């Protein structure tokens, strides 16, 4: 049973927000690896998950939590596979959507759909209706996401060659993300974060491993070519995957799935801020207003409810 103390709930929300900030740095790293080494988004994603799994399993062994990881898989093998597979799948769907329809539409549809679906699922299970406060938070967060993503789309070079398929993939990505978060919330109530993150990330790494084999077999770039690129890849796996998902699952112990999906909308906010600082990109007024709306929505969240029923 999750701790319902207000302090624990606020800490859980901060942990989810921290995960979103780390995810926001991932886009810049992926872009740098693509420019430097020609690594595709799918290849980078496969390496990211594999390195995260190795780091988490090594930590679990050093911390003598290997048995906890094994017990987590044995206790709920199907649910662990579903969460791990969902984590891998929505990344692949999102990256494919970006290539087909552009980053702006893909981000708005995928990230924007997730909190709506997560909230709907939680209220359906609890047989309740969303209150005015929750609806206001959702509207503000989605409006902010639209403003930020529209600004990103203006500077995007993506051609959006197959918008219909790209939009469908973005919807599938958002639905998978919402489902994975709700399922992960249920697991997080019963499993310690290190064991849960290690088990689900290992599943995701195994499922994405074929992309590395395919890249090597087709002659496409599959490995970083410089020590600097290798360091970026390690950061991507350890910080934006292993640490970030550890924070997410720790936060989900005291924060509802719908609140978590809203809180992770700080990802595009942190990405925009990082692009301005590191790449010198200009932050437009719509992006600034959008960022403030997302942050205000996160600040207005009530992390303790509503919660889906757990057994």
Description:
- With 311 residues, this protein is an all-alpha fold.
- 79% of the residues lie in helices and 0% in strands.
- It is built from twelve helices and no strands.
- Helix 4 packs antiparallel against helix 5 (103-126), helix 5 runs antiparallel to helix 10 and helix 7 crosses helix 10.
- Residues 305-311 have low confidence and may be disordered.
Distance between the termini: 9 Å
> What characteristic shape results from the CA principal axes?
globular
Instruction: Give the strand content.
Output: under 5%
The run of helices and strands is: HHHHHHHHHHHH
Helix tally equals 12
- Percentage of residues assigned to helices: over 70%
Regions with pLDDT < 50 over 5+ consecutive residues?
305-311
Mean pLDDT score: 83
Quickly give the structural class. mainly alpha
Oligomer: single chain
| Rounded radius of gyration (Å) | 19 Å
Number of strands: 0
Largest sheet: none
Write the layout of secondary structure elements.
Blueprint: H1 6-37, H2 41-62, H3 66-75, H4 77-101, H5 103-126, H6 132-154, H7 163-188, H8 193-217, H9 227-251, H10 257-263, H11 266-278, H12 285-299
Helix pairs in contact: 1-9, 1-11, 2-4, 2-8, 2-9, 3-4, 3-8, 4-5, 4-7, 4-8, 5-6, 5-7, 5-10, 6-12, 7-10, 8-9, 11-12
